[in-house]
Amino acid sequence: MNELAITVIGRDRPGIVADVAELLARLGANLTDSTMTRLRGHFAMTLICVGPSAADVEAALAPLSADGQLLATVRAVTPDGETAPAGEPYVMAVHGADRMGIVSAMTRVLADAGGNVTDLSTRLTGSLYVVVAEVELPPGTAEELAGRLTATAAELGVGVSLRPADPDLL
């Protein structure tokens, strides 16, 4: 069984998810993990699937890219298997006036404390910039880290919160 990482990006239009999912289903690919979003009118999808070869998936996706509106890439990846989370799950939210370096500075504080960003989204609405990141923190570090995040946020002129994440219900 092959494990593949697939990305599809381009100008958004209705039906991209359905088109990609149908092609993969016809090939017998099992979609295991995915994230899809629209970014300023552009579609972006990354997914992991198990099944056919990378060459078969590339050939099947080629018609979607033929008009140059979408770019699809396929890469074989090595399965990691099931792994337990490396730390405690938290959610960091940052909000304030848009300026350069918010994501860089805040994620550097997390990384320097041994935190791992597992999901991140940003949104600019007018002049308001919002960052929401799911992170795994080393056990027992959240309180001290919250102080460092608050200090960094103050330097940037933004607000920050760090709260325990609710466990996924699967």
The helix-strand sequence is EHEEHEEHEEHE
Mean pLDDT: 93
Q: What topology, given as strand order, has the largest sheet?
A: 2-3-1-4
Give the C-alpha Rg: 19 Å
Q: Helical residue percent?
A: 25-40%
User: How many β-strands, per DSSP?
Assistant: 8
DSSP helix count?
A: 4
Strand content bin: 35-45%
Describe it.
This protein has 170 residues and is α+β, with helices and mostly antiparallel strands. The protein is 29% helix and 44% strand. The chain is built from four helices and eight strands. The chain is flat. The model has no long low-confidence stretch (mean pLDDT 93).
Keywords:
single chain, 170 residues, alpha+beta, four-stranded antiparallel sheet, 4 helices, 8 strands, 29% helix, 44% strand, flat
Kindly summarize this structure in a few lines.
With 170 residues, this protein is an alpha+beta fold. The protein contains 4 helices and 8 strands; from the N terminus they run E-H-E-E-H-E-E-H-E-E-H-E.
Question: What is the topology?
Answer:
Blueprint: E1 2-11, H1 16-27, E2 30-39, E3 42-51, H2 54-65, E4 70-76, E5 88-97, H3 102-112, E6 116-125, E7 128-137, H4 142-156, E8 158-164
